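Posting for a labmate who doesn't have an account.
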Amino acid sequence: MSLNDWRDRLFRLNQHFNTAVGLIAAAVLFAMMLLTFVDVSGRTLFDHPVDGGFEITELMLATLIYLALPLVTSESSHVEVDILDHFIPTTLQTLQRLMIRLVNLLAYVVLTWVMIKHTLRAYEYEDVTSVLEIPLTGLGIVMVVGCVLTTLSLLLAPINVGSTENIEEDLF
């Protein structure tokens, strides 16, 4: 199997992954929106908000963020500030982008390790939320999976270096 075959397979796998994660993230966002609507309506119309609504919203927001991180990373949809890029030669821009990628990779490896330690500690101590007493281990697992997938996205991205002429497409 050639390198191009492997790249095509990885590309197709990445497309399926992005679709699945995007659908899950959309469902979480919709549920968060629906919960907020019901909570505000109940509070305003019936003077009875959803019990633990704020807590559930917090958990869903964290889930949404950690589901979106690998999706945004694999699609290179991060916000970039490029005000100095016009003054940097193209060869140095490539080096700059590689260095940024390496720093991001290192940061996500450390973040993944910290999240694993935090999740194991939450499991050991049986940490729960304060109002509804929802176990925090599940959220920790989602966060660890999001960090691992983001790290993998950063690891796979440099495969494209030098495959096109446009620097934007080379690394992102």
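Reply:
Got it, the structure tokens are right above this. Residues 3-45 form the longest helix (43 residues).
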